[in-house]
Amino acid sequence: MKFNSPQQAFESVYGRPPVAVIQSPGRINLIGEHVDYLDGLVMPVAIDRHVHMAVSPGNGHTCRVWSALSGGEPVEISMDKLEPRPDSWLNYIIGVLALLRDRGTRLPTFDAVITSDLPTGAGLSSSAALETATALCMEALTGEEMTPVNRARLCQQAEHDFAGVPCGIMDQLAVGAGKAGHALQIDCRDLYMQLVPIPDDMAILVTDTRVKHSLGDGEYRKRREDCEKASDILGVDSLRDAALALVESGRDRLGDQLFRRARHAVSEIERVRQFNKALESSDTATIGKLMLASHQSLRNDFNVSCDELDILVEAAYDFGPERGLFGSRMTGGGFGGSTISLVRRDAAEELKQHLQSAFRKHFKHEVNPFITQAVDGAKIIEA
Ligand code: GLA
What we know:
Helix content: 40-55%
Shape: globular
Number of helices: 11
Order of helices and strands: HEEEEEHEHHHEEEHHHHHEEHEE
Strand content: 15-25%
Strand order of the largest sheet: 5-4-6-3-1-13
Number of strands: 13
Bound molecules: alpha-D-galactopyranose
Largest sheet: 6 strands, mixed
Distance between the termini: 25 Å
């Protein structure tokens, strides 16, 4: 069933209006990949693709959640049984509820409806958007507000405990604290956040490869473990504290794989610093070089890219700066998911077609790149 708004969907499912509607965006990351869990620097952007959650207090002993993606009858969640369910998207909701309960929040039962134009499994943080929306729903119903940082921490914990992904905090903070027209540089050590304006003539083109290679989740954990082993060997608390010279000097002790993991992390954090300056001064040549170097490091040293991502990035650079390309790279955790391309606004449509036809030459399915922009983080839009 197609609805024009989350309000309308709520009324149709439950026969009464919602008391609050939450709007929670996805995110892309401009640069700083696989370094948030290493106390590193990252530069995500909340994007204008959203999860919406409409909510009202419930009537019975169980909560009901209806998602436009699955359709059918609403699923039930009992507040007495907030436990992980095997392979279920409901874990993002249940996880947040369980952690709020553990903090001492008295949780009311509720009815909720979820609608979304944010692709799932595309590396655009639909899970963080859903977690954050759930937390804001409960804040709307209980009146107990959290700061964006505390909310992000709770949602990150839900992802660890209920979805089994040992993620960093970038996604949840980007979704919760993004600002329209800006990238958000986050120092993941002290969570200091700096807003960096995105130039008006710079469009962000997102291309979802529509593949998710199954190695995904287990490999994410392995990368994190590799980095922890590397920092132990190098004698630093985290790779944030290592300089490239230290990594080079430890090459023999690290062995090839840990050396490459550490080299990615340390060089990527430095690239974020340089990217921040380049963005501030609209130095698009440097932006292009840094994004390419980031992609190559993720592919060759961190081994989290895949053919579909590589072909898209290669095609973007073939399009070239003379036709308006500023830079391109994979975004998010990798093993599939999306690329981003920064492109002169008036050239975005042409780049889109170029990427589609390049992809078609190599793969059997189509991609459908979309232009997006930086928006505000998650909020209650109707109460
Ligand atoms: C996923 C995780 C984030 C981050 C990225 C890679 O999106 O959820 O915490 O580690 O991968 O940068």
